[in-house]
Structures are given as C-alpha cells and as structure tokens.
Backbone:
RNA sequence: CGGUGAGUAGCGCAGCCUGGUAGCGCACCUGCCUUGGGAGCAGGGGGUCGCUGGUUCGAUUCCAGUCUCACCGACCA
C-alpha cells in the first residue's frame, strides 16, 4: 500500500472529548471518527485492525467447529415478547415501528433470533451438537456511551450460540468455546485473565469473562497468585474464615459515642481496631423488601452478592427515611439489636467467628460493646456478602493470596441452560422419540473493544504499539528523501519484495520531511519500520526499527526483506 | 435519568465579565526554501459564534428556553 494513495488522517492534537488513551490514539491515528454519541465511522486503518482481529476470531471459531452465518440487525418484536425480554430489556433496546405500525428493535444480541431459527430447523438429537456464530453489528442504546469503541452504542460483536442435547453435552460445548477464546486472546498477544463472572441480564447458570488487564478497565478482578482461581470482584468468593473464637463472655454494654458515625471514628473513639466492630447496612428492593446486612467493620459489602443471595431483582441502599422506619435510628448508629421492624438480618460469614464486638445501638450517639450473636440478638442467616480485597486468602487453594487488577471485558461465555429454548419452545426428539428441551450456551467477543483494549494495553508517548497480529500493517518502508532517486528506487524495491513475500506493508512515499513520517509511523503503530536513507544506502545499509522495543537494527540492503519477514513470522507464531 | 462541565473555522483554544457582525496556533491551498524525529519565509481560502425566542438602534457577548457533547453513578461485548 502506498501511503500517498491511502487515507490516514492523523492529527497532532487530541480531540478534547476523548478521555481514555485508546480513544485518543484511535482518533489521532485516523482509525475512527465519531458520527454521533457512541456511533463511529471505521476509517480504513481502523477497519484493517478490526478485520484482522475478526479473522483471528473466525479461524479459531471454525477450528472449534462453530459455523458462521449472519443474522439481521432489525428484529421483530414478537420474538422478544415470546422470550419475555421485550418487557424486561428496558430502554437499552432501541425500538421502532415500520410503515405498517409493526414493532421492531435493533438487535442488541441474538438469542431470540437464533433460537427461533434453531427451533424451526433442528428437530433431532442427530443434528447436535451444533454451534452457530456471526460477526455482526449490534445496537444497544447505552445510557452512557463512552471511551470511544470501548463502550459504543453501535458496535461489532462476534456472537456464538451452542445447542446441545443435555447439560453435560452443553458443558463440553462451553469448554470448547472457553478454550477457543483463550487461543484468540493469546494469539493477539494480550495480557488477559479468564475470570468467573456474574451472568447479569443474559441469564444462565455460570459464565466466564475474558478480561484484558489495563488500569483504565471498568471492572475489578482478582486472581490467585498460586492456583488458577480468578474472578470478577462482583462474583469473587471471599475465603472462609474458620477461626471460630471463644464464645463471648463479656457483658453487653451501651456506650455513648457522640457524633461517631463512621466505623473508623467509633473504633478510634473506643480505642479498638475496626475489625472488632460490626457495621450494619440497610438495603431495599424496588418491591419494598428490606434487609439488614452485617459486616466486619473493615470489610466492604458486595451489593451484587447480597442481591443474588436474596434472589432480588434489584437492590439499592435504603434511603434515610426507610432506614429510620426499619431501625428507628439515624444512619451511623445502626445495629442488629432492638430493631424497630422485624426485617431479614443477613451477616457475612466472617461475622460468625466474631465475639464481643461493637455494634450500633439503633439510637443516636449510642453503640453497644461486647455484643454477641445468639446471646444478644438473632439473625436470619450467614452468607458470603463481602467484597474480596487484594491480599485475601484464595477461596480455592490453601496457600494462595488474591491479587487485584483492573480489566476490560472483551469476551464473555455463558451457560444458558434452557432459559431461551424453554421460552421459545426449542425442542428435539431424542433416541427414544421423546421430546426434549435443547440446552444452550452463548459466547460473545467485542471486536472493536478488543482492538481498543489492545491499544489501551500497548502504547507509549509516541502512540499506538499494536501487537503484530492485529496491527493494521505489519511493517512499513520509509523513504527518507523522496527527491533522492536512489533512495526511492531502493525503498520501492524493498516494498515490492515484502509484498511478494506476503507481508502487509505500507510504503511511506510521501514528500514529507523525515520527522513527519517517523511521527506518523510511530503514532499508527507500525510494528517494524524499515528506513531507507541516502547515508545508509551509500554503505548498502538500511535500518529496521522495532516499534515495541525501540531497538534499531542495521541490515544490508539485500537481507532486509527476509529479515523483516522472519521477525513478523516469529511474532505471529503461536502455540498450537 | 440524576450530578458536573462544555458548545466560536477540520482540530486545539482566545474573545464574552464591561454589547458595535470575530482572532490565534495547527491543518488546508499557492510559491520559495528545506529533507534522519511533527522546519522556515511570503501570500491565500475557510466561521449564519449549537439552535429558538427575548432585551437593545445594534447580541458571539445580556436574559429565557431548547438541543448536542464530554465526565462521575446504575448497564454491558
């Protein structure tokens, strides 16, 4: 590709509305341009990276026996009514009517459409297992699109759906996809973790998220430094504290704690460490349920774990008025003793091992010391409701400690069970001629988001450093002085030879000063840059600069193409 | 949707407080010059100042409304 005939509108300055690095750099490198909030044009360079990643995804999906197809963007409302999600999905689903007033939506995901296709076409156990996938544009009317391609409203996604005769067969399909995902992100040279995750609105029994590690990531994840355990903190189990201390023997006593609302203040005032206190939090559901959650003073509540434990559809912190009604106390002095209303009290499992602790007295400026469960109050149950922290013991192995990371969710695999197949009545006949419900799994990869995440993880002050596998071009040839016919001839020959070897090469033949070309090449993240200048040429030499390391290698003119080709091949080699 | 901030040339910004029809840098066009890390000189093109209404002789500037965009929360590939 000739740079002078291509279209790479780079900019020196960063558009003011781009906040994260990947967004800024994709704009500056001329990869994307915004059309509307969360909606982008993919310019030629950006499209190249996206296509390259798509193709890696395709290769691995095909290898894992998934079959490519393509479903429409526009979907009829009836299917969504059948699955129950027309009512449930909310405003994220962009709905509209056609000229006949029939209702439609832009597809945010394709469980309904694929299940409809499958229930019409898959009739026998002999037709399974089967897995269909597509690379397609989704639309989700996100409340707050942000960070460029990281969270767009319109975005490209690879989604796959597996169909199996029963749960254990579905597990095998799930494992196959899990392994394919591992290979995909490994091939892209990304530093990532596969973590246990909450299933959210897609539903189903279990799931894993694939997280690219980056400080700007929207999710917090933990991984064990010793075993393979890794999870989203939303989901991460806290270790079981087994140290059951002796039964509390000290007498319960009410003490004045004027204006001591925060745990640290109370503990400081009483000259105790915060882990000798128990804090109480009131949560409410939209339906009007309330719960009092008890945690060790220095621990944080995990709302999602509490919500899932209670089986609520939603959860939020109770308002001050609600809290007053439940406990009879202002915020800051809440506790399990002497509640005004009989509400559910759930304690974190860690609290089970505590004795003689401090709790709020449900009375302004009063706390109890030496409180003990059973003697002083009863609770409904114990549950794992606290958020794990870095340094916690691993919940799975004896020796490990949890490390904490920020991550960008680039892929998510779900075991759906029969959620959609049941709703849409997707059944098959088994070997005995008996009708059975199909078991499903679904598997997504954010295509644009992965490219953005790769940039987020790989950049420096000069611009993008994309891994070779998804860089828009693998290498470039920069002619330092276009007026020098010797330089131009040599550069062009290298360029043509590299193309002959099958390399994706950009020939920077522009009549620009060298500095401009170097800056642009760095910015757009060309992994290997071959510089042809008159000085080197006089000695029959050209140089190769490696973008990721900054290393400069001087090579003889005749050996450079093969050398660069070898470097590219080495970078693309992946474990089979 | 709640909270915060911003809309002036393709991009980054100034001007507005104290009304008199707009300016700087980059980018773009022409010429000269220059060619190993975003050069220099000269000339030039480009803006209904987000939109609507009000106040005023006169509004980018003051007032009201409205739209859009970004950031922080719930959602998610």
Residues:
């Amino acid at each position: 590709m000739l740079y002078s005939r291509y279209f790479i509108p780079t900019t020196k300055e960063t558009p003011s509305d781009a906040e994260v690095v990947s967004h800024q750099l994709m704009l500056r490198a001329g990869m994307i341009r915004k059309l509307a909030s969360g909606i982008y044009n993919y310019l030629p360079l950006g499209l190249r990276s996206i296509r390259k990643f798509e193709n890696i995804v395709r290769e691995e999906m095909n290898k894992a026996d998934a079959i490519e197809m393509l479903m429409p963007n526009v979907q009829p409302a009836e299917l969504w009514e059948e699955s129950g999600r027309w009512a449930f999905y909310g405003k994220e689903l962009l709905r509209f009517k056609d000229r006949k007033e029939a209702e439609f939506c832009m597809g945010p995901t394709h469980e309904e459409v694929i299940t409809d296709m499958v229930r019409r076409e898959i009739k026998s156990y002999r037709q399974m297992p089967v897995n269909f996938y597509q690379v397609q544009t989704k639309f989700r009317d996100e409340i707050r699109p942000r960070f460029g391609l990281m969270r767009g409203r319109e975005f490209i996604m690879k989604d796959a759906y597996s169909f199996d005769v029963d749960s254990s067969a579905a597990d095998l399909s799930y494992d196959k996809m899990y392994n394919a995902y591992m290979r995909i992100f490994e091939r892209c040279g990304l530093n990532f973790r596969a973590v246990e995750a909450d299933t959210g609105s897609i539903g189903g029994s279990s799931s894993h998220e694939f997280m690219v590690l980056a400080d700007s990531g929207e999710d917090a994840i933990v991984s064990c430094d010793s075993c393979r355990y890794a999870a989203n903190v939303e989901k991460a189990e806290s270790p079981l504290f087994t140290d059951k201390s002796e039964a509390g023997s000290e007498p319960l006593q009410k003490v004045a704690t004027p204006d001591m609302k925060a745990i640290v203040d109370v503990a400081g005032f009483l000259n105790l460490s915060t882990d000798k206190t128990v804090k109480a939090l009131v949560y409410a559901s939209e339906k009007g349920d309330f719960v009092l959650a008890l945690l060790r003073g220095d621990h944080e509540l995990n709302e999602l774990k509490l919500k899932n434990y209670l089986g609520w559809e939603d959860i939020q912190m109770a308002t001050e008025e609600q809290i007053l009604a439940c406990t009879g106390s202002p915020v800051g002095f809440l506790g399990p003793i002497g509640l005004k209303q009989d509400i559910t009290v759930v304690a974190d499992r860690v609290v089970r091992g505590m004795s003689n602790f401090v709790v709020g007295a449900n009375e302004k400026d009063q706390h109890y010391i030496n409180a003990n469960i059973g003697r002083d109050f009863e609770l409904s149950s114990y549950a794992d409701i606290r958020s794990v922290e870095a340094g916690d013991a691993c919940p799975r192995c004896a020796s490990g400690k949890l490390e904490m990371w920020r991550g960008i969710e680039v892929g998510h695999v779900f075991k759906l069970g029969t959620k959609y197949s049941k709703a849409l009545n997707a059944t098959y006949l088994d070997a005995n001629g008996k009708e059975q419900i199909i078991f499903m799994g679904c598997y997504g990869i954010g295509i644009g988001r992965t490219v953005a995440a790769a940039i987020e993880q790989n950049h420096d002050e000069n611009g993008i450093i994309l891994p070779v596998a998804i860089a828009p071009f693998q290498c470039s040839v920069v002619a330092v002085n276009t007026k020098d016919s010797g330089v131009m001839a040599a550069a062009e020959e290298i360029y043509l030879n590299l193309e002959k070897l099958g390399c994706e090469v950009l020939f920077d033949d522009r009549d620009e000063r060298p500095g401009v070309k170097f800056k642009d090449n760095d910015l757009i993240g060309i992994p290997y840059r071959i510089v042809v200048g008159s000085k080197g040429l006089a000695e029959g030499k050209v140089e190769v600069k490696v973008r990721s390391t900054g290393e400069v290698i001087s090579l003889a003119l005749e050996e450079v193409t093969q050398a660069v080709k070898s470097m590219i091949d080495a970078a693309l080699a992946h474990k089979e």
